[in-house]
Design goal:
It is a single chain. The chain has a single domain, classed as 3-Layer(aba) Sandwich (Aminopeptidase). It contains five helices and seven strands. The longest helix is centred in the middle third of the chain and has 15 residues. It is 29% helix and 30% strand. The radius of gyration is 16 Å and the shape is globular. The model has no long low-confidence stretch (mean pLDDT 93). 26% of the residues are buried. α3 runs antiparallel to α5. It is of the alpha+beta class and 197 residues long.
Length: 197
């Protein structure tokens, strides 16, 4: 059985991560992105997100088989306590608990960053993603109907939400991942359930 490990993504991982993402672009409506970004652009995305938020990969014997990241949900300052999550798993690696483990690690790290609410957008129908969100305690917030045209059809997008921190009257400001106590996020990744099997 392959040894699974979780770690933070690096810009040098861009080609391997893009290889996982590209089939979702070209063959599905899971993402509404319609053209594969260049390797340079994709590496810049990893760099940009990683500057403040967690961008994680799961590896099987060193090969990247899935990835997940969080990013700011909306740009106004009052939204700083919210994050939107995304996860993509490579072909042949679905249904092994990798998505759940990566999402769980993201949520724990974002909690350290003072994030209070996390959101996931799911192109419908997508039983796997719906099950993932339900298993992690998300509730369905609502649906944008016929909001995206791809693969020759209009698609609905359902939004899921989860409160991961208290909404007290004087919240601590959002903390960049770079300002977390040394080793705190790495410890979360070491405890990642899929990686500790």
């Amino acid at each position: 059985m392959e040894k699974l490990t979780c770690r933070f993504a690096k810009e040098q991982d861009a080609a391997a991560i893009l290889a996982i993402y590209e089939p979702y672009i070209n063959n599905t409506a899971v993402t509404f992105e319609c053209e594969t970004p260049s390797l340079k652009e994709f590496a810049a995305r990893i760099r940009g997100i990683s500057a403040d938020y967690p961008y994680l990969v799961c590896c099987a014997d060193g090969k990247i088989v899935g990835y997940a990241y969080g990013h700011r949900q909306m740009q106004r300052d009052a939204y700083q306590w919210n994050a939107e999550l995304s996860v993509y798993i490579g072909r042949g690696w679905q249904c092994r608990g990798i998505g759940k483990a990566l999402y769980g690690a993201l949520i724990e790290i974002l909690r350290l960053q003072n994030v209070r609410n996390v959101y996931g957008g799911v192109t419908m129908p997508n039983a796997g993603s719906e099950s993932l969100h339900a298993a992690l305690g998300f509730t369905k917030l609502g649906t944008y109907h016929s909001t995206g045209w791809k693969c020759g059809a209009w698609h609905d997008v359902a939004w899921f939400e989860k409160q991961i921190g208290s909404c007290d009257l004087k919240p601590q400001p959002f903390r960049s991942i770079k300002t977390l106590p040394p080793g705190s996020a790495d410890e979360i990744l070491r405890r990642c359930p899929v990686c500790s099997r």
